Amino acid sequence: MASGEPDTNGEGVSLSWRAIVFAPAAVVLFALSLYFNNAQKQFPALVCLGGTFAFVMVWLALAARATANPDSPIRMFIPRLTVFIVLGTAFLAAMQWSIDRRITAMEIGFAAFYIVAGWFGVRGFDARFRRPELRVVPGKKPPRPNGVAR
Question: Which of 22, 48, 83, 117 has its CA 20 to 30 A from that of 10?
């Protein structure tokens, strides 16, 4: 199996390496965030919750780069998810400003990471399918950009 090909089990369900790595990690981080929240440890709970969303954003960015379909729904999902996660993070940062400034700073850092990961996912997707194809024609000089003859 090559590194980018999906693994197919006996029932015909295919899983890529991204699903095998990122799905359990996101579930474990989310479970840890719930555990720390129940133990009333707010800072570790929010670190784990932010890490969960960070894993999901990286997973989507890698999936967008690996897709072979230019009309994939992942292309439209990444900006929407980025907006919702960044708005939620900004809201949480604003609510924690008067309580704990460390959490506000951490949430601002997570928001910056989500924006970069979302940009990386969309930019990587666009660069793969909207790249101009340049070909060299032997014996012919390329035209000048402004149209002036040489």
Answer: 22
Mean model confidence pLDDT for the chain: 79
In a domain, 58, yes or no: yes
Tokens found for residue 133: 């194809």
Tell me the whole-structure pTM to 2 decimals: 0.64
Report if residue 139 sits inside a domain. Answer: no
Q: Phi-psi category of 139—alpha, beta or left, where left has phi over 0 and alpha has psi -120 to 50? A: left
Backbone phi and psi for residue 7, each to the nearest 5 degrees, phi listed first? -95, 130
Q: In terms of residue numbers, what domain contains 50?
A: 15-129
* CA distances to 39, 138, 145 from 54, in Å: 23, 48, 43
Q: Is residue 88 part of a domain?
A: yes
CB-neighbour burial class of residue 55 (10 A; exposed 0-12, middle 13-18, buried 19+): buried
Q: What does the alpha-carbon distance between residue 104 and residue 96 come to, in Å, rounded to a whole number?
A: 6
- Cα–Cα distance measured from residue 27 to residue 59, given in angstroms and rounded to the nearest whole number: 13
Structural domains in the chain (count)? 1
108 Cβ contact partners less than 8 Å away, ≥ 6 residues apart: 89, 93
